[in-house]
Amino acid sequence: MSRVAEILRYPLKAHGREQISQVALKKGEAMPWDRVWAVTHEATRHADGWLSCSNFTRAAKAPELMAITAELTEATETLTLRHPKRPDLVFRPDDDVVAFLEWMKPLMPQNRAASTGILRLNGRGFTDSDFASVSLSSHASHAAVEQQVGKSLSHHRWRSNFWLDGMNAWDEFALVGRKVSLGDTVLEVRERITRCRATTANPETGARDADTLGALKQLGHQEFGVCAAVIQSGLVREGDRLEVL
């Protein structure tokens, strides 16, 4: 029986993870407060609405970002960012952009486009998929990657929303095209998630220290986890069951 082991959100895309105990999902939307903000850079193609990940500062190009953790105070929309090499930063992404840009500058490679600002997209969020989505991954699949790499790895490399226990490795791929209940909500699983170099960086240190992409390719693909659309609103809690409908 598959159950939700962990729930995570990433309020500022690519800049910190936050674990939560439950979340109320809404039909047609991404996870509340997940990737609602994203950091632009010098080559960002500005447009109204959703933009692809290449338009934002991300850990695939700046691995130090993987070591950021986040804590969002929803009532005031205040975000606290923590990194082992930086003092804690408490700021409001809509207002305190200059302070944020100064804080993150030492974490950015000098040969990459400099970060320039922060965009906000309510409801839809700046998910990597071109539709509003939530992501699901399995601890068993992560263990299979660890075995292939030959050492223990933090599962936070994959930056998923829902972590599932009680599955065999890669069982989640068979959910594509299916509807599943997760707690009180219903999801339609749409596609596998193709992974990038961000996963090669250690979420504790920000250093590239594992060939996760090579391990996936040895397993016959470059994908980890699946993304799904919310088709029925509802509450999801740690420990809730996943059932195929």
Question: Could you name the key traits of this structure?
Answer:
245 residues, mainly beta, M1 Pyruvate Kinase, Domain 3, 3-stranded antiparallel sheet
Structure description:
- There is one protein chain.
- The protein is mainly β.
- It has a single domain, classed as PK beta-barrel domain-like (M1 Pyruvate Kinase, Domain 3, Beta Barrel).
- 11% of the residues lie in helices and 34% in strands.
- The protein is built from three helices and 15 strands.
- It has a seven-stranded mixed β-barrel.
- Strand 11 and strand 12 form a beta hairpin.
- The chain is globular, with a radius of gyration of 17 Å.
- The two termini are 14 Å apart.
- The model has no long low-confidence stretch (mean pLDDT 96).
Topology overview:
Blueprint lengths: L1 E8 L8 E3 L1 E4 L11 E5 L27 E5 L4 E6 L2 E6 L5 H8 L10 E6 L13 E5 H11 L12 E4 L13 E4 L2 E10 L17 H7 L4 E10 L1 E4 L3 E4 L1
Parallel strand pairs: 9-10
Antiparallel strand pairs: 1-2, 1-10, 1-15, 3-14, 4-8, 5-6, 6-7, 9-13, 11-12, 11-15, 12-13
The tally of structural domains comes to: 1
Radius of gyration over C-alpha positions, nearest whole angstrom:
17 Å
**What is the CATH H-level superfamily?**
PK beta-barrel domain-like
Give the CATH class.
Answer: Mainly Beta
SSE order, as H and E? Answer: EEEEEEEHEEHEEEHEEE
Content of β-strand:
25-35%
CATH architecture: Beta Barrel
Q: Helicity range of the residues?
A: 10-25%
Q: Which fold name fills CATH's third level, the topology?
A: M1 Pyruvate Kinase, Domain 3
Low-confidence stretches: none
Biggest β-sheet: count, sense, barrel?
Answer: 7 strands, mixed, barrel
The chain-level mean pLDDT equals: 96
Distance between the termini: 14 Å
Work out the helix count: 3
Number of separate strands: 15
Structural class: mainly beta
